[in-house]
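Cross-posted from the bioinformatics board.
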Amino acid sequence: MLKITGYPDRYSVAPGETIAFKVSLEDADRFHSRIVRVVHGDCNPQGPGLKFIHVPTALDGWHPGRRQSSDAGSYMVVADAPDLGARAFTFLATIWPTLVERGEQTLFAQCDPVAQSGIWIGLSSRGALAVKLIAAGATVADISTGKEMLNRQWYAIAASFDPESGRLRLAQRNLQRLALIDDSGEIETIVRLGAGAWACSFHLAGRPASDGRVETHFDGKIEAPVVLAGEHSILARDRLNAYPISCELSEATIARWDFARDIETDHAIDLGPLALHGRLVHLPARAMKGSNWDGETHDWRQRPEQYGSIHFHHDDVYDLGWETSVDVMLPADLSSGPYALHVCCGDSDESATREDYLAFFVRPPRQAHLRSRRPKVVLLAPTASYLAYANHGEHITARGAELQMNRLLQFGHADVYLYEHPELGGSLYDSHADGSGVCYSSRLRPVLNFSPRYHSWLGGHGSALYQYNADTHLFDWLAHKGVEYDVITDEDLHQEGYGLIAPYRVIITGTHPEYHSTAMWDAMKTWIDRGGRLMYMGGDGWYWRIAFHKTLPGVIEVRRAEDGIRTWMSEPGEYHHSFTGELGGLWRRIGRPPNVICGVGFIAQGFDVSGFYRRAPDAANPRAAFIFEGVEEEIIGNFGLIGGGAAGIEMDCLNAVLGSPPNMLRLASSDGHSPMMLLVNEEFGVVPPNLSADVNPRVKADLAFGETPAGGALFCTSSIAWCGSLSHNGYDNNVSRITWNVLSRFMKDEGFAS
Amino acid sequence: MVYKIDPLNDRQFADEFRRNPIGSHSPGLMRVLSILRVDPSGNQVIIICRKPFAKWTLALMPPRRQDPIRFDDDMAFDSREEAEWEVFRRRWFAATGQNLNLSLSD
């Protein structure tokens, strides 16, 4: 299907900076590349068609390539650890397995994958605690308790081996007693192995393989792993929790990791004397409640000792670490805007696509002295929302998706590739194989739906675009109108704050700017409060709070707490971000509804066909006269590439109770929706029978405008589908005209009456 | 109790679907679709876009992602609506035992 893919090392790059691309080929050994400015990524024959502008650079031409491998799965590694093969030792931990049926899984390993010697402690293929001793490539001992663990139960486990006596002991104990369940047990045997050299590293939740990969990952939580010298019983776990710790245990401690420390980082802190701190690879989930969580604390910062577990997944992905295939220093005079590296390894046909577009944005120069004389308009590229939806795979995993879409799920070549490559990692909408939600999403991997030409199973009937490619409808319209504009990304705004957007008179959003960090939110609010003019060109904006990692680049976190459209739900007690400690969830539930920022807030969603707007009385208000100049029609936007209308997919409305400014004008409201346009669940407490647009008058989008106290203004399309109507009839239509009327007025020096 | 499709009384909704496979549907048709579109086996019929906006085929996505998608290239469709109708016909037959011997354009 898809025969070439890749990713850039950054989504935002300034002129004169270098950007690198990592490309993987399925069945070729070279590829052709060129940089293009992305104008329109929709090949729907009903629209303007694909538009790319070649930007000559040193990357033009053919380059050698190969297939790059993706080694997913999180684990902890201690690179420089004492060899345990020479003396008796015990490994203790508390674990909460979540996918015991998956087969062998590693809890702790000290193995030399080349010499093939060492010890492996984990779950057997039947989910029982097991240990293997390996010497010179041969497994000399392979025992297990034979007691299959249950998913989502806490178990104390202990494994010890004394090379002198040959005694190998295992014990597992469910911390709860369950009636008629036999899942605790122990076993002891003698193994004549003798002392030997094993390795100089420790691995937790994964085992190193001879090819450099890490395999046999664990799915579930691990809490308080400990390595002690000598043989100790499973009861030592309880004595380790005593304070002060006994002299005997203190003396025996080789390593004792406390996952409640440094939760915001990828470090695993060892409290033992050797400071064998671990490095966490591929971002296993932190700030996870432990076996001792008592339900009284929901903020891990208050009682970190109750959040001493880490949830590992065999399908966690942070940085795939592909080798750079090509890189280039961009011209110093390159205009800010949307770009992509077009890569191609042959001709495409019905069975294979041999080209891809690796998207990125060129931002304004970083140095303030080079940023003088910027255009009046900046497009805020919603890269946080692109990341939230990165490799969105519900069409693969959620069997209710066809019902939600009200039509068959369409798979393009990229979707089939995604199906076959789960190691690329999921989106913040997906669940891990063990059913827990994906709460981190990174850009350091191929993101197949962050690309021109990608048609989404989720987009409305017609062009079926969603997120990035839907935003190319806006790129195209801005180009058609000759609007000079800069692009900055969410990540830029998060890092640099208000100062980055202060010079611009107008900010234009994408079609679905849903995910915002606190720093992004604060910067935007400051800009609006100081007279900015916001053109909110989409729907369901400023909905979820996210966190960026403080040191690791390109990764965001969400917690699906309490309310909202949730494809998975955070566990009780796990609503606070591990990256920052902030309470996660809907901005609305944190006291900052979207209405406070952009004037409107989320009200309904439906993904099949779109409706249109009907003029409301406020359209006749003289304050709105400039918006309707040259627009006489009662009906607005009864056409378009996204579902056939301008009002659809996800929609917002005015709501003064939630913070819509009282001076906002309701210019028009939508109508003509399918019964699959449904009220969102944060809008009701008791489930009403009239959820759909055909029986609930609240299910509508409000086209809105209002002035702000500092002379700025808000314009809200309140619909993801709006931009899909801009190009209709050669860009000569009432959606395009209204948008242009607003933009041209917003660009003027004259402030709005306040 | 989950509704059981009545091939006689619900036939009007099959006709409605044939007239408008993708779009706003009546409550009666919505109920029929809600039944037909759930496969307890976990298999999922999907459409494969072979050529954007020009050619589609059908495929079966199995319950387990480890298993391959089974492509059905025997039939190709010029529009998504044609594919929708073909799948509806198959599901209708599976639910009622009755054939809807009509093409989308009949």
